[in-house]
Amino acid sequence: MRVTSLATLAANRRSVRGYLPDPLSRAAVAALIETARTAPSGANLQPGRLVVLTARPLAALIEALDAAVDEGRAPVQEYNWFPDPMPPHLKARQRAAGQALYAALGVERGDHLGRVAQFRRNYRFFDAPVGIVVTLDRAMGPGGFLDLGMALQTFALAAADAGLGSCGIGALARHADVVHQALALPKTEMVICGIALGRPDPAHPANAVRTARAPLPDYAEFRGFDD
Ligand SMILES: Cc1cc2nc3c(=O)[nH]c(=O)nc-3n(C[C@H](O)[C@H](O)[C@H](O)COP(=O)(O)O)c2cc1C
């Protein structure tokens, strides 16, 4: 019987950027997706679609992305993630997350090549045995992103519960055109992000990263409580 509480599972989940090569079965990944799909969504629309890749199809996508990055293909911004300009308090959080990752990897502050090398690992799905491309119908409003996010966090928790690791890859959306072409995706779908999935490599330095969260009062305001 499982004894991990949801609070413990959620607190211990972290983004995994180093994987063991062990393949995952279709049934194992499908079980996680079934759990993810229990997430609620507005009007139960259940928007979004996952294209789950392993072995040759994953390698083919990675080759296409590698070639695009090699030739310096300009990024395609299909939707905005960050505010522009970024407010200082968010910039500070972004910088802290980046510094935690680079420190764990031993990439020094001015080591531009080291940073580029790590960034490129996004486009190899961090060498995970499974790579997932997440799409959303272009006709969906911002609420569709919300629905999708609910399902993706449920997916991440289900993976953690099964002893697997995962990492969102927003960087994939920067080369949405390459992904579209490589996977022959319908034009009606927007590439939202990727997900790396596999068994975490406990020895990989990237997996030593621990991120912090802003204090509760920065996030939640309580009104009308007696305690
Ligand atoms: C939708 C989404 C997209 C993400 N995209 C990337 C990415 O492109 N590259 C990366 O290294 N991490 C990516 N991450 C991981 C975040 O950096 C990470 O969740 C955050 O720093 C908090 O760390 P934790 O997941 O270990 O708690 C992404 C996470 C999410 C949820």
List the helices and strands and how they pair.
Elements: H1 6-12, H2 26-36, E1 49-54, H3 55-70, H4 88-105, H5 112-121, E2 130-137, H6 142-161, E3 165-169, H7 176-183, E4 189-198
Antiparallel strand pairs: 1-2, 2-4, 3-4
Helix pairs in contact: 2-6, 3-7
The structure holds flavin mononucleotide.
Flavin mononucleotide binds next to strand 3.
Written overview of the protein:
- The chain has seven helices and four strands; from the N terminus they run ααβαααβαβαβ.
- The chain is α+β, with helices and mostly antiparallel strands and 227 residues long.
- Strands 1-2-4-3 form a four-stranded antiparallel beta sheet, sandwiched between helices.
- It starts with 5 loop residues before the first helix and ends in a 29-residue tail after the last strand.
- The site of flavin mononucleotide has 12 residues, from strand 3.
Question: What is this structure, in a nutshell?
Answer:
By secondary structure, the chain is of the alpha+beta class. The protein is 40% helix and 13% strand.
Number of E-type strands: 4
N- and C-termini, Cα separation: 36 Å
Strand order of the largest sheet: 1-2-4-3
Specify the overall morphology: globular
- Tell me which oligomeric state these chains represent: single chain
- Ions, cofactors and other bound molecules: flavin mononucleotide
Beta-strand content = 5-15%
Structural class: alpha+beta
Helix fraction by DSSP (H/I, runs of at least 4): 25-40%
What do the pLDDT scores average to?
A: 96
The SSE order reads: HHEHHHEHEHE
What's the Cα radius of gyration?
A: 18 Å
Low-confidence stretches: none
Helices, by number, come to 7
Could you give a short account of the major beta sheet?
4 strands, antiparallel
